[in-house]
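Hey, quick one: can you model this chain's 3D structure?
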Amino acid sequence: MLHDHPSVEEFQSFLRNIPRPNNAARNVRVLRHLLADCSTCRDRLQSMGWQPERLERLVYLAGNPSESVLQAAEGYNYDRAFAKADEAVSKFLVAAPLPQVPAEELLAELDLHPLAEQVSLVERDERFSSPSLIQWLIDRSHAKRYADPDEMLHWSRLARSVAAHATPEAAGGEEKLSDLQARAVGQFGNALRVAGRMREAEEALSTAQHHLEMGTGDPALRAKLFEQVASLHTFQRRFDAAISALTEATEIYRSLGESHALARTLVLEAIAKLYSGEPEGAVVILNQAIPLIDQEGDPHLLFAACHNLVQCYINLDRPELALSIYSEMSDLYKDFSDPLLLLRTAWQEGHLLRDLGHLQAAEAALLRARTGFLKMDLMYEAAVVSLDLAAVYVKLGAVESCKQTAAETVPIFRALGVVRETLASLLQLQRVADQEQQALEIIRLLNARIEPHAKRNLLK
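Sure thing. Here's the predicted structure for all 460 residues.
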């Protein structure tokens, strides 16, 4: 007879988190009770509100999705689910062998070499073909998403390379290795998207999905890939496809009881709505997402949700309400030092000040944002901020400043590869800078013409 039954907290941690090596002892104890069809643990799961469908989501990881749920005459029959767990667990939760060299040491050794040498190092030195290193590299890549897109891409490329050279024996089996490869290539695809390399990002995410299908069927990994694909679709302005992928991810996270991950998908859905021209719908979704966010565990997600909520109200021509939310979140904004976040905040501040009629203050904020975007080689952002700045000068009647800004924007537009007609419109703006209505109409036209060149025009 089994004793020492897992606590509610241990069940919650086991059922909701992706297993890691430091959870192995807990996993073994929980699994021993599940596989033994422990009646006490069965009752405990039911008392936790763990619905049968949620348990099936865990134990039928690699099963046939068309299999129907068995229902007993007086309720759900857990026998099939518990029996099936043995097969799923052998693929999904089996512990990989301990690495010969801890991942922390390998990462520290990598840091001793220039970035340009690190890829060849992990490819020629088999010590770096360590599955335990992959998640460290993915985490480091993810942490750079708002600070340095190039470095984000570098760490994800290393993760992909390590995953490509790892062996099934080191990973804990063929299926576990496929999961690691899906995770690494998915992060690589996401980094390519952030870098604006859309075709390559699409190819990488397609490869990641292939690895996923060869893996254990980990539902959390499947949902994460849906998120990454949805972000790509949003950048490609394929908003219906993005929302469809997010619906799939949302369903998985709801079944797993992952409220914070659910909040993340809702924020992504709101962004897709916002950029598809539906700010009202985005407001509704963001107000659903914000209470679900783990504010201490992921302050960046809270920042993204609030930033986009402010943008919704700017787009809805309600600057007073946007300013109210912006002011309430000012303390949160001060907690971040990520260069890209600070630049987007300055840009948004310029929008708010412009719409509220504080044109000189708007000028200062927009100049700060444009300078920063140019330093980071973010030409689309620099181009749009330049047009925003030109509009402020038109409203101020600062004709020479408008002409100078238009002239400074010409090389930025050329770097984007815009068509000749667009450059001609920019030159025309210089000629009509003293005619407010005509100048603002040209600026609106220019914004529409460069929109297809958007690469990183959303925050998440």
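One thing worth noting: The first strand starts at residue 71 and ends at 72.
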